[in-house]
Design brief:
The chain is mostly helical. The chain has one domain. It contains four helices and no strands. Helix 2 runs antiparallel to helix 4.
């Protein structure tokens, strides 16, 4: 449990100095989904990266607001 606490401390310190990183990663995933929708196959039809990108960006906004 102590290792997990140290991991969370390091992670929060990392994101405290880079508040917009998760939002930019989420936006990049949304753009990647837009490009991949023209590729035939499962990845193009599932909108996986769209949903993942929106979720990552939302978590990034909430984390930036809290830190």
């Amino acid at each position: 449990m102590d290792a997990f606490n140290r991991f969370l401390d390091r992670l929060s310190e990392f994101f405290a100095h880079r508040k917009g990183l998760l939002v930019m990663v989420g936006a990049a995933l949304v753009v990647l989904n837009f490009v991949l929708q023209f590729v035939p196959g499962w990845v193009g039809q599932s909108n996986l990266f769209l949903h993942l990108g929106v979720l990552v960006a939302l978590v990034g906004v909430l984390l930036a607001w809290a830190l």
